[in-house]
Amino acid sequence: MLNFARTTSLTAQTAGRRIAFLWATSASAHTGDCMDASKREFFPRLAVLAGTAQIAPSAFAQDYPSRPVKIICAYAPGGGNDMLARVVAERLTARWGGAVIVENKPGAGGAIGAAAVRGAKPDGYTLLVASVSNIVISKALNPAVPYEPTDFAPITVAAAVPVVLVVHTSSPFNSVAELIAYAQANPGRLNYSSGGVGTGLHLAGALFTQTTRTDIAHIPYNGDGQAITALLAKDVSLMFAALPSVASRIASGEFKALAVAQPKRLASMPNLPTTGEAGVGGNGVLLWHGFLAPKGIPKDVMDKVHDSFAAVLHEPEVRTRLQELGFEMIAGTPAEMAATIQADAQKWPAVIAASGATTR
Length: 360
Fold this sequence. Notes:
By secondary structure, the chain is of the alpha/beta class. The chain has three domains: 2-62; 65-157 and 288-355, 3-Layer(aba) Sandwich (D-Maltodextrin-Binding Protein, domain 2); 163-260, D-Maltodextrin-Binding Protein, domain 2 (3-Layer(aba) Sandwich), CATH 3.40.190. The protein has helices spanning 2-29, 35-53, 55-63, 80-96, 111-118, 132-141, 176-185, 200-212, 224-232, 243-252, 299-313, 316-324, 334-355; strands at 69-73, 100-104, 126-131, 152-161, 163-168, 190-194, 216-220, 238-242, 255-260, 287-294, 328-329. The strands form two sheets. A six-stranded mixed sheet has the order 2-1-3-10-4-11, with helices on both faces. Strands 7-6-8-5-9 form a five-stranded mixed sheet. Helix 4 (80-96) links the parallel strand 1 (69-73) and strand 2 (100-104). Helix 1 packs antiparallel against helix 3, helix 6 runs parallel beside helix 13 and helix 8 (200-212) packs across helix 13 (334-355). Mean pLDDT is 85; it is low at 1-57.
């Protein structure tokens, strides 16, 4: 494989040298009005050699990957992005017959790792496992983040983490409608916890209050664990939580789930209505996790990358493992991911601006 890649590279270099030689010899052999004849002679020969020079990209795609592929995770080990990347990397290694390595580059809310991939060579050997948080929300929170949501080539939205609206089991609210009615009649009397300002779960609450035109105060904590503890202690009225972090509390009866904040009902909780069904406008919150490449990756390489990711994400064992970790499987196309990013880039900046959240 490596010898073939080197051969195709040398073929392209040889073609380039022959093109330069032909131009020089054609130009020196003809002067004045005869230059037109020179061009007529040169350009057909150039077309032939250009075809020879194009061998390298397609051969490269056929040869890909011929060395280790790196998936950058912009968060610390153990989080959702990291777990997703490691499950997928393990299966890609088996499929491609070469190492796929997950490298953690945490910091700045996921912006450091994403920026590293944005600046990487677009050859398919450096990829990014990402989420709506560091691709869209980080930029909206802080304009100084050194990339735009469109600065990447989408591969796939692999999965999403469902967000549920939960209250303490002793809460008088048994439906979203009851909660909204009380909040509208008693502005400022309710509050909700989150793991910090500008987090996806904070913004899920902000979107809810803006959409329902209710005054429900946001109480930020240092991480989702503390936010959950606050609800357990009844220090807050409600919270929007990632389902995996509260599923056991719901099952034990400590929390009541009133709705899932996404367009479709959960397969794991089919009786739980969506916020849309409960009368809240909009399409809720999709905290997606997916994979991207540096912009400019050759199409044939991208096609091979996407097809491999899609095959892995449809493996029954992989789907089972990710579902056990709390993910809802999606495994969409690059076009679908681009549309998701575009929709988020239109929605979240307005929500963030209205909430007053910033990390600057």
